[in-house]
Amino acid sequence: MFWMFLSVSVGIIVGALPGLTATMSIAILVGLTYGLSPELTLAIILSVYVGAIYGGSITAILLNIPGTASAAATALDGHPLAVQGKANYAIGVTRMASFIGTLFGLFLLMTIAPMLANIAILFTSVEMALLALFGVLVSGLVASPDLKIKGWISAFIGMLISLVGIDLLHGYARFTFDVPMLMAGFAFVPIMIGVFGIPQVLDNLGRPPADRIKQTGSIFPKLGDLVRYFPLSIRSGVIGTGVGIVPGAGEDMGGWLAYFAAKFASKKKDQFGKGSTEGVIAAETGNNAAIGGAMIPLLTLSIPGSAPAAVLLGALLLHGVRPGPMLMIDQPDFLPLFGAILFFASCFLLVAGVVVAKFFIRALDIPPKILMPVVAVLSVVGAYAINIRLFDVYVMLGFGLFFYVFHKQKYPMAPLVLGVILGPMIDENLRRAFWVHDDLAAIFSRPVAAGLLVLIMILVLVQTSVVKPRFVVRR
Amino acid sequence: MAAILWVVCLAVFADSFRMTFDITLPGVDAKAWLVAPGLIPLFLSGGLLLMLSAVMAVALRAGALRALTSGGSPLALLRNEETFKGILQVALLCVFVFVLLGRVHFGLASALYLFCAMYVAAAGHLLTIGAIALVTSAAITVVFGELMNIPLP
Prior knowledge:
The structure holds two protein chains of two kinds. Chain A has helices spanning 2-16, 22-32, 38-62, 72-83, 87-120, 125-143, 149-162, 188-204, 223-228, 230-245, 250-265, 277-301, 307-318, 327-330, 334-359, 368-387, 390-408, 414-437, 440-444, 447-467, and strands at 165-166, 173-174. Chain A is an all-alpha fold. Chain A has one domain (2-466). In chain A, helix 3 packs antiparallel against helix 5, helix 6 crosses helix 7 and helix 10 runs parallel beside helix 12. The longest helix of chain A is centred in the N-terminal third of the chain and has 34 residues, at 87-120. Chain A is globular and about 70 Å long. By secondary structure, chain B is mainly alpha-helical. Chain B starts with a helix and ends in a 6-residue tail after the last helix. Chain B folds into two domains: 1-70; 73-153, no CATH class. Chain B contains eight helices and no strands. Chain B is flat. Chains A and B meet through helix 7, helix 8, helix 16, helix 17 and helix 18 of A and helix 1, helix 3, helix 6, helix 7 and helix 8 of B.
């Protein structure tokens, strides 16, 4: 419990510090917690995750800079509230909204996950492969902020990287160039730390610290406000969880969609963007509810719903937990344990949020010029700790620098990591199905496989229709 | 960037083609290509070739080639202080990882890196950043190396 409280507090601080993202902190933690028990590791990582998603809102309110991408929608109304002298009120309201959002996501996780697992257990190799491919492709399509095809390029590169090493089906060495270190393939944790950590370090080294608005008023929201906005919280929770389920959509999209829905339904639309409490509550409930949503496909289908969930999947695999349809049968205690950790983490958020906002807020004044080199050193420690070999540190830095160029050209990194993690699953399952059945038509005539194949074809058509207009010369 | 990747993908595609259609697998008689280790890489590298071609075509239509040739000399780019500092930070990180780690004690290596990185970023007075580098490095070494028993490079 102590470690969980500490982790939630650290998560809030990390999330609040601009430049340190939830994904990056979880990626580094995977390496740093490798020696601990799986239960404690899970508790620490989930607590940091919950804390970091909320922590981003503190910076969004006080500095008008979202600490994490998921808090971008919160900044729209949170910062105007702070300018009006209601900074503590906004922080208090977002804390309650995050708590409700996380609990709502957890409720849906515990309700839907067992049902989905019962369906997923009927899936065969080919369906698992197609489902994983579908997840990676959806993630690539949704996560790309620029040209949509860049998401797929990232995802395909990720899957190719994952196929380096000895092929598990026939023992054939692929793309190893006779280098002994490459025979076992690239470990995914150093890649995750590299692609999420190094670009953040290099991007933020030159950024000056922002001015913080003075905190005034009570940090505890009024009970009346919470009751009044409860229906809004529920609606935003449903939207956030729903968005969280979509692979690659993540917490930021959950926050944005909940915000837009609140604006659409509100009687005070004109207040949005000028300090609307509804806007702040909707955005924060939405992004925190997406945590539970992202866990639903992660635990039942082994397909993460967001970038931090993808990193969490890496952590689970590292500790011998294999999420997927068989998880509920092989480890029946896992889902209740997972739910209990998420529940206590959200409860600790209520207390830790006050402690951090009152006593550790000066951490926001640490200049990135000092903080970022320290993050680089922690990334090195995290990458090394997994296999205790320098090669992994080289991999971490090599991939980090290589994909920094990608990051600069607006290629999303979440599909890449998803590709690295799910690539072997797609490769093994698809080829195993071909080996067993030896007939393409028979394999794809199964209803679920055929349905997934149709969905993948639709994604290809969507991608083509997005790219096609870019070839038309504007006159 | 896309052009360099395109060339790499072409090499991967060629190797995957070999691993798919020019391979003998134990226990597999007919349709060996369906279960060959090169099948998925062939599909992925082929897809990448198509998509990278599309990205290059879009970039060319948007005037990427003109922007590249009118961007000035690499020397002029280095004269930009921000760019120069960025390159220096990357170089420091590479020296820390590829040169210092494994040869020098981790505490000393990280203190050296932290000091140099903060100095290049103009994070403060020499004494201040020196003290921060030493204390942080010692803290990381003790907390992770001694208290949490995490092996350090």
